[in-house]
C-alpha cells in the first residue's frame, strides 16, 4: 500500500534558527518560511535528492504541534509521511485491519494541497504516520 | 554537505510485531530480522521506492536504543540518516562550525559496513542525526 517516503516532519521552536542549521551547518537547500494558518504551522521545506524534510513551527494558539513541543522542548521528529495511490482505499483497508485513523476518518486537504490522513501512533510503533495521496 | 536521506530508524520493542504492521497493515516490502551484535540491535529493512525505513530492536544488555525505549515505551523515530560524500571532511566542517559529534569524533563502521558518525541532538533541533559516507 505505502509508496514513497514523501517527507519527515521535524517540529521546532524557532524555524529561522532551525533553517540556518540546515542551510549553513548541514549545507542543504532550504526554502523560505511559509505560514499555513489553516494548519497552525509555519513550514520550511528542505530539498534532498530523494525526498524532503519539513520543519514545522507552531502558528497560532491551536497549533497541532504545540503539545509535542511542550513534551520535547528541543524539538524533534514529529511525523513521517508515506504516499499512497488512493487514500480512500488505503483508509478502508486500514480500518478493516483494525488500525485507527485519527479524527473523523475522512481525508482532509493537507499542507501540499493533497488529501491526507493521520494514523494513530499506538498502532504504528509509536510513530505518527501521515498518508498523502500522491 | 548532506545528500540523500539514507534511512529513518524506528526503535521498537518487538521487531516481529512491528514487521508485521509494516508488511500486512501497510503493505510494504520487509526484510527478515538480522541480529547485529556489535551494534546492539536487531534490524529489519523496509524498502520504499526512494529510501528505506529501519526497525531496530534492542539486542543485548548494552543496546544503544534501550534508554530510548525506556522513555518511549511504544517505540518511536530514533534517528535519521543523511548521506555525505566524505565523512572526514563533513566531520571537520561540522566541528569547525561548533556542532558536536558524538563519541570520539572518529567515524565508525556502521550497520551497512560504511563509515558513520552521530551528531548531538541538542545542536540539530532535538533530532539524532547519523551521517553515512555513501
TrEMBL record, chains A, B:
Transmembrane intervals: none
Keywords on record: Isomerase, Metal-binding
Annotated EC: 5.1.99.1
SUPFAM superfamilies found in the cross-reference section: Glyoxalase/Bleomycin resistance protein/Dihydroxybiphenyl dioxygenase (SSF54593)
Annotated ranges, domain VOC: 4-134
InterPro entries from the UniProt entry: Glyas_Bleomycin-R_OHBP_Dase, MeMalonyl-CoA_epimerase, MMCE/EMCE_epimerase, VOC_core
Record's signal peptide: none
UniProt key word NAD: no
Domain of life: Bacteria
GO molecular function: methylmalonyl-CoA epimerase activity
PROSITE patterns: VOC
PANTHER family in alphabetical order: METHYLMALONYL-COA EPIMERASE, METHYLMALONYL-COA EPIMERASE, MITOCHONDRIAL
UniProt cross-references to NCBIfam families, sorted A to Z: metmalonyl_epim
Similarity comment: family membership: Belongs to the methylmalonyl-CoA epimerase family.
Stated name of the protein: Methylmalonyl-CoA epimerase
Species this protein is from: Microvirga splendida
Amino acid at each position: 500500500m505505502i509508496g514513497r517516503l514523501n517527507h519527515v516532519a521535524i517540529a521546532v521552536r524557532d524555524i529561522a534558527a532551525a533553517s540556518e542549521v540546515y542551510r549553513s551547518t548541514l549545507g542543504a537547500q532550504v526554502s523560505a518560511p511559509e505560514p499555513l494558518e489553516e494548519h497552525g504551522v509555519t513550514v520550511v521545506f528542505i530539498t534532498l535528492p530523494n525526498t524532503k524534510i519539513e520543519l514545522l513551527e507552531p502558528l497560532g494558539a491551536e497549533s497541532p504541534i504545540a503539545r509535542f513541543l511542550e513534551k520535547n522542548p528541543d524539538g524533534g521528529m514529529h511525523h513521517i509521511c508515506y504516499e499512497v495511490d488512493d487514500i480512500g482505499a488505503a483508509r478502508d483497508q486500514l480500518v478493516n485491519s483494525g488500525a485507527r485513523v485519527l479524527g473523523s476518518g475522512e481525508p482532509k486537504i493537507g499542507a501540499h494541497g493533497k488529501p491526507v490522513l493521520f494514523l494513530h501512533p499506538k498502532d504504528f510503533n509509536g510513530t505518527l504516520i501521515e498518508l498523502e495521496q500522491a
